[in-house]
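User: Can you predict the 3D structure for this chain?
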Amino acid sequence: MTDRPLQILHVVRTRSFAGVEQFVRRLAIAQAGAGHRVAVIGGDPAQMALALHAAGVGFTASGSGIRDILLIRRSARGADVVATHMTAADAAAATALLGRDAALVATRHFTRRRGSRAPRPVYPAIERRIDAEIAISEAVARSIGIPSTVVHSGVADVASPADATRSRTVLMAQRLQPEKRTRIGLAAFAASGLADDGWRLQIAGAGPELALLEEDAASLGVDGAVDLLGFRDDVAQLYRRAGLFLAPCPVEGLGLSLLEAMATGLPAVAADAGGHSEILAGLDPRALFPPDDIAAAARSLRDLADDEAARAALGAAGRERQRAEFSIGAQLSGTDAVYRRAIAARRGGGDAERRQRR
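Assistant: Here is the predicted structure, written as structure tokens:
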């Protein structure tokens, strides 16, 4: 079984396209490219269906609870692995797979325990059916309270990022939600004084904080140097043109946007928390700042903006780390190993062996 292609069903019970759905789409396409038979349930159909179908990956939109349980049960016929993402998918798949021998592997994306927002007695029952848990970072593994295997998320390598012409632009690319701390990033840009030196702040993303960001930019006197770009499907090009990347969120399980920026050689400054700490540790002390510390973030931006050589060195070091530790190939290999151990335990070992493996 070691080398044979697997039949894999990914389940994410949303109709959104945020970080988790991007993770699922990227991984499913890579797995199909490696020769596996892959299907996906869930995610925004407009963002998922076309790209997945082009790669030979089946796609079905998520619906109601009962419908999804029946859909998972039907789609899992013959599957080797059902891979779930977020608690709603874990619960539906655990129910759907009653009496089935497909391995259930849950990927943990967030630095919190399952059901921490609304504890219910059902969660231990869900976890008993799960054969393996994958954590996308050491930070996630430490926080979830149960054994897991760390498999870092990967992004595609970018060829010749040094050809990019860097502008005097600080870029943020994230959803405009409170937990992302976009307003902290804007305040840090304003406090850095970079606007007075001709730098601009570009914010790519959509969400409920748009009006607040417009108000903040005006009240801080930098509205003329701030571009609120909304949702963009050309973020890869923004990475290539920007001069600095800013990631102020203190609760990222890993940080895919940060990794994508690093893949292009874009030097990054990020909150020293969650997965950001793993990604940037040891590269340059100015690359990490204490979470929510506007003054410290502003100093990092100012120092790096004034030091072109340091920016180039940080960009090169970041790209090298992404290629060495956060590649799609490494993620595929690590994920495959977890899947195959889970399959072997499910089909041959029972609960005691699964607990020992985990």
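Residues 352-358 have pLDDT under 50 and may be disordered. The two ends are 20 Å apart (CA to CA).
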